[in-house]
Design brief:
Blueprint (H helix, E strand, L loop, with lengths): L5 E5 L2 E4 L6 E6 L2 E6 L8 E5 L3 E2 L29 E4 L2 E4 L1 E4 L17 H4 L2 E2 L10 E4 L10 E2 L6 H5 L4 E6 L3 E7 L6 E4 L3 E3 L5 H8 L2 H6 L4 E8 L14 E9 L4 E2 L2 H11 L6 E5 L6 H8 L12 E6 L4 E2 L4 E2 L2 E4 L1 H5 L4
Parallel strand pairs: 12-24
Antiparallel strand pairs: 1-5, 2-3, 3-4, 5-9, 6-10, 7-8, 11-16, 13-20, 13-21, 14-15, 14-17, 17-18, 18-19, 21-24, 22-23
The structure holds adenosine-5'-triphosphate (ATP) and manganese (II) ion.
The site of manganese (II) ion has 2 residues, from loops.
Protein name: RNA ligase (TIGR02306 family)
InterPro entries: RNA_ligase_dom_REL/Rnl2, RNA_ligase_DRB0094
Pfam family, one: RNA_ligase
Length: about 350
């Protein structure tokens, strides 16, 4: 499922903010967002822009960056994006405006409609970690790595309820996929979007460290996907002193399915490649948004660095109607976001 940066959403509830007379709190999907008081009521429709959105440079959004001391310049600053903030002590994520402010949207209004393109909202992307040595396209047939945020798809909680589940630590590094190309038989290393030239880059160094070429030639349909972590990768929040690999997916290129958790563990033990840390597992998932957001917060082991969050899945693969793909989602730590984590 593709992320909807701007969408039509209905207000679940409006709550007062103590000691504030101009603002109040709105709940939409699994998000909470501070709005101007009196603009919206429960049940109303609004246009919701998620964090990481870059709003268009248009009078409806100018108040977001307009500095009252400098009346002349109303232009959007180059680096502007919607971030996680606290306003009067309240966590606020994204921006919610009444739908009446958007005459360009065509009726009937349907909750969930993606209006990112029509409004000219774009996505802020973190700067690329390093110049990747691109060789060509991604391993054909293998899905690229991605996870949806639970607040944007809250019904995944109902889909997971009662199922055996596993939560793993979201490692703040860079995505890597290794596998045998099914047509050429060639061992291939990929980043988030492309295959990477064989050479003295982190991908190939890590492949060597863990003997991935030999292990995967012995299991030519299995591709492994994980996070490269270590010095020089992102901010090395895990505090490691050498590059490491932490696997979160094992994909069977022949059956076109991800291995279930237990099968993946067994395979990774066999080839001696570490998996991402399991933070919690259980036989019957019964968390709600609040308990998950609390669990997401914490430090990476042995550090004082805020962890990015968790990734949560059933132990056996399940097709999610909400996601239109495998049931799997992320819960990003608000403490991490408030401290400026991307
Ligand atoms: P967004 O879609 O929210 O704008 P994004 O597409 O950059 O952001 P990330 O926040 O990087 O996505 O989250 C997805 C990525 O998290 C995956 O592609 C994977 O590389 C990485 N990741 C790290 N740890 C894990 C884990 N334990 N399980 C699954 N994925 C993980
Ligand atoms: Mn994504």
């Amino acid at each position: 499922m593709k992320r909807k940066l701007a969408s039509i959403q209905s207000v679940i509830a409006i709550e007062p903010i103590p000691n504030a007379d101009a603002i109040e709190l709105a709940r939409i999907q699994g998000w909470q967002c501070v709005i101007k008081k009196g603009e919206l009521r429960a049940g109303d429709l609004g246009v919701f822009l998620e964090i990481d959105s870059i709003p268009p440079d248009d009078p409806r959004f100018t108040f977001l960056w307009h500095n009252k001391k400098d009346v002349e310049s109303t232009e959007r600053p180059a680096a502007f994006r919607l971030k996680t903030v606290r306003l009067r002590g309240m966590l606020s994520q994204g921006l919610l405006l009444p739908i009446q402010q958007f005459p360009e949207l065509i009726r009937p209004f349907v909750t969930g409609t993606d209006v990112t393109e029509i409004l000219g909202v774009t996505k802020w992307e973190p700067p690329l970690p390093e110049m990747e040595d691109i060789a060509g396209p991604f391993l054909p047939g293998v899905p690229k790595t991605d996870e949806m945020r639970v607040q944007s798809v809250p019904s995944v909680l109902d889909e997971l309820a009662g199922r055996a589940y596993v939560m793993t630590l979201k490692c703040d590094g860079t995505s890597a996929t290794f596998g045998i190309h099914q047509d050429t038989g060639e061992f291939t290393a990929c980043g988030r979007n492309w295959s990477i030239k064989r050479g003295s880059n982190t991908y190939w160094r890590v492949a060597e460290t863990y003997h991935l070429e030999k292990s995967l030639q012995a299991h030519p349909h299995l591709a492994i996907q994980g996070e490269l972590v270590g010095p020089g990768i992102q901010k090395n929040r895990l505090g490691l002193n050498c590059p490491q690999f932490r696997v979160f997916n094992v994909y069977d290129q022949q059956t076109c399915c991800f291995l279930g958790h237990d099968e993946a563990v067994a395979f990774l033990n066999e080839i001696k490649v570490p998996m991402v840390d399991v933070i919690e597992e259980g036989l019957s998932f019964d968390h709600d948004m609040e308990s998950l957001l609390a669990l997401a917060e914490g430090y990476y082991p042995g550090t004082q660095n805020e962890r990015e969050g968790l990734v949560i899945r059933p132990k056996t693969e399940y097709q999610s109607p909400t996601l239109g793909g495998r049931l799997s989602f992320k819960v990003i730590s608000n403490r991490f976001l408030l401290k400026g984590g991307d």
